[in-house]
Amino acid sequence: GREPLTSRVGYYAWSWGFRGATGVVTTPCDLYQWDQALRGDKVLSDEAKEKFTRPFKAGYAYGWMVEETARGTRKIHHGGSTLGYTAKISRYVDENAVVIVTTNSQGDVHGLDEQLASILFRVNDGIDARVLARYSGVYELSPKDSFALAVEDDQFVVLSVGP
To answer: How far, CA to CA in Å, does 91 sit from each of 19, 60, 74, 75, 97?
Structure first.
């Protein structure tokens, strides 16, 4: 048999089911670049993208959950966790938007994902300004690349900070 796989994330026996969990170490910036690459035609053709995101079993496509939003647009998403790390990417392909949440805490990434989407798409115009203020600040994507979120007139404004 094969030797067990040891990774920076955790130890699992070598098997197909754990290749993604232990074989992929990524960042929000990497996930954003992956989202952008999937929107173009360098990674997948239009035909392959359609097949890649066509649900075949209970809303599940090839590695993605696919659902319709309340706005009548497509949300293509998936999340995962392992040994203290949790992540979720939600691609709003018809609206050219993506929400990426990663954490090494016990936080609710699915709830945060939904809150961020409601802010992004102004689903709930009655969001308390104190809730928005909690997410204001500078976010570092890499040591040389960051951005800032500020609240103006009860909505987020993205300020470029890095290159």
So the answer is: 23, 14, 8, 6, 6
Q: Mean pLDDT of successive 10-residue segments in the chain (163 residues)?
A: 49 58 73 89 90 89 90 91 81 91 78 82 64 78 72 67 57
List CB contacts of 40: < 8 A, sequence separation 6 or more: none
pLDDT at 7: 46
Give exposure, 134-148, as e/b (b: 16+ Cβ within 10 Å): eeeeeeeeeeeeeee
Give the H/E segment covering residue 49.
helix 46-52
How far is the C-alpha of 19 from the C-alpha of 48, rounded, in Å? 23
User: What pLDDT was estimated at residue 45?
Assistant: 92
Q: How many CB atoms lie within 10 A of CB 100?
A: 21
Measured distance CA(118)–CA(71) in Å, rounded:
11
Token pair of 116, please?
């961020």
Q: Which two tokens stand for residue 76?
A: 């293509």
